[in-house]
Structure formats: structure tokens, C-alpha cells
Amino acid sequence: MKTQNKWVRAAIPALLLHCSIGTVYCWSIFSQEIADYIGFSKGATEWAFSFAIFFLGMSAAFLGNIVEKDIHKSSLLAAICFASGMAGTGLFIWYGGSHPGSILALIGIYVCYGFIMGVGLGTGYLSPVKTLMLWFEDRKGLATGLAVAGFGAAKAIASPIMQALLSSLGEGGIYKMFLILAVVYFVMMFVGHLLLAKPAGWHEPASSEKGARAIDVIKEKPVTFIGIWIMFYLNITCGLALISQEKMIIKCIGLVGVVGVLSSVTAVFNAGGRLGFSAWADTFKDRNTIYKIIFILSIVATGLVILTQGITNMGQNTFIMILVLILLFVVNAGYGGGFSNVPTLLSDHYGMKNISAIHGITLSAWAFAGLTGNQMASFIVKNFGTEIEFPHDGVVEMINPSGYQMVLYVTLVLYIVAAVISFTMIGKKSDK
């Protein structure tokens, strides 16, 4: 019975939920259109995305206990918040179009896309994870990797659909797209909510049971948890720092004509890393080994590009150009793999009793990394190096190759710190 139902009761609903909420990463596709339509700068509207990631992590941290107690309540909450937040965003975009420059429209988008959708993101991200690990006891990494890969692949799936809608809906297409997708994603998430179920043989511990609270379980091995949190935070920060500059780095190495194609390829590595690294981790006795591999690969790839001055080389050497692409592929794969392995690493150390709540607390690292990764890279590029003119396709664009190269020095140090933590602070696997 378990074999027959695990796909219907865990894998399919997980994909429905994660492929819906993962579209939050489509922000870059329509952010300029929103800014133009409501009469604000792109920089002003960008905060909506930062708030969404921040509240994703924080809602996961504070609502993890709700997910732990009742996945049906949490998955329904996720569907309602995500869809209503998306619909609300569409309505405030419509209002902003009617009242250009309205601060009410901008704040409304912050609240709907940032806070309300953020709550849906956090609860939706957590809801299927424990269920997957319970159904796929022998392949926990593969199961969680499958769902988290859905979150990563959502952008690749939804991007062409969103672009087609923007092109076909005419005037006001940007707000109409949000209203249409709000309905589509609510249906998908609601179906996932209806299907999602834990195995019949699993019984949650009573809340009065000793060690039942997540914080009590964490206190048993506090150094390990702190190590996992910091390691997770650093991996996301480094990933976001490089991914946010990815398109400009690709242009710097002379591949302007295939920026879109290579961005799709890196997205495949991001999603593939989520599934591949987590499935690979199932073969190790100590799941922390996968993090050691991720950080070592990232350090080697970053170090090689620094030593060869790969970005400032401006594509004059094909071998060095390939090294830069390998760096982008490795960072994207490691970024995704870091996400998919966190819940299973936590379950190895703290058991399954409170894994949703503990995982939720750990995701607060994502919240803070979401506020620091992109901004750190932008600060470095703005304040270090020199901008130069870069003519292509009949236009002249300003780029800062030495600034992008400087980002690598910072991420290299952070990757080394993360590797040291992985080797020293993460204790042995628990027998729970």
C-alpha cells in the first residue's frame, strides 16, 4: 500500500506545491514592467522580491510548529496566502496603473507580494518535506530533492508562459497575468493540499512528551545546529551573490549572444543540483559529506577563476572562458544542493519528531541571506573596480569586470569558512 500511495500522497502533491510557489523566482521577468506600469523605479519595486524571500524564511521559522501538527491546515494556508497575495499584487498593479506614482500601490505590492505571498511560500515550502521523508524512508534525499528541484525548476517552466501572457494580454497585461495565475496556482496548490497525507502508520508525538518541542531537541546538540544554520546561510549568500551578477559575468566573457540560453542552462544546474546532490547523499553514511563536496568544488572553481583572472580576461582565452562557465554551473548546482540536503541532514541529527519545526527555524537563514547576498554583490560592484564601455548589438553598456572579479574574492573566503564549519562543527549522525 505504501509503495502504491507514496507518489500520490507525497511526490505529486509536493511537486504541485513547490512548482507553484517556486515561481516567486520569476520576479526578474516582470519587475521592470511593474515599475513602468505603476510609475516607480525598478529599484523601488525590487524590495517586493526581497521581502518575499525574507518572509518566506521567517514564516517557515515561526509557523513550523503549525506544519508539524497539521500539514492539511498548513498546506491550505499556503494555497490561500500564495494565491491571494498574487491576486492582491495584480490589483495593486492595476491601481498603480490608474494612479501613477501612488505610494499606496507600491506599499500594497510590498504587502501582497512580500508579506502575504511570503507566508504562503514559507508554509508551502515546508508542508510536503516531512511527508516525503516519511514515505521515502530509504531514499529521503531523493524524495526531498525531487520536491525542492520542483521549486528550482518552476522558473524555467513558468517563464515562457508568463512571457506569452504578457505579450498576448495587451494593455494592462501585467496585472491581468497576476490575476489569471492566482487562479491557476490556487487550483494546483489546492489539489496538492487535498492529496497530501502522511503514512497511516505514523503517529505524531504528544506535545507534552519530553523533547517534543523543536527548541528542546535543538538544545541537545546546539553546536551542530548553529553549524548547520551558518553553513546554510553562507552557501545561500555566496550563491545569490554570484547568481545575481550571472548575466553580466556571461557578457564580460564575450557570450552576449547566448546569455538567455546560458541562464537557462545554469537554472538546469540549479534544479539538477537539488535532485542530484540529495540523491547522491543517500549513498553516504554521513550526509554532511555532500556539503564538504559542495564547498570543496565551489572553492576550487572560484579559486581557478581568481587565479586566471577569468572575468577580467574578457573572453580572450577559450579555456579561461570555460573555467568561468564551470564556476557558474558549480555554484548553481551547489546552491540548489544546499537547499535539498538541509531537511535530511537535520533528520539525521535530530530525528523525525519535530523535523518540520526544526527545518523551519533553519530556513530563517534563507531569510537573512535573501537580504544580504544580492546587496553584498551590488555593493562590491558599485564600490570596487572601474566601469568600462561595452558595445554590443548596436548599444553601449557599462560593465565592471574587475568589480565582478572582486565578488569572487569575498565568496571564496565565505566558502572556505563554510567548509571549515562543515568539517569541524557538524557532529556525527544521531541514532534517533
Q: Gyration radius, to the nearest Å? A: 22 Å
Q: Roughly what percent helix? A: over 70%
- Mind describing the biggest β-sheet? 2 strands, antiparallel
Number of helices: 16
Q: Which CATH class of the largest domain applies here?
A: Mainly Alpha
Keywords:
mainly alpha; Growth Hormone, Chain: A; 2 domains; 432 residues
Blueprint (SSEs and pairs):
Elements: H1 2-21, H2 27-38, H3 42-69, H4 71-98, H5 103-135, H6 140-168, H7 173-195, H8 214-220, H9 222-243, H10 246-252, H11 259-281, H12 289-307, H13 318-350, H14 355-362, H15 364-383, E1 388-392, E2 395-399, H16 401-424
Antiparallel strand pairs: 1-2
Helix pairs in contact: 1-5, 1-6, 1-7, 2-3, 3-4, 3-5, 3-14, 3-15, 4-5, 4-7, 5-6, 5-14, 6-11, 6-13, 9-13, 9-15, 9-16, 10-11, 11-13, 12-13, 12-16, 13-14, 15-16
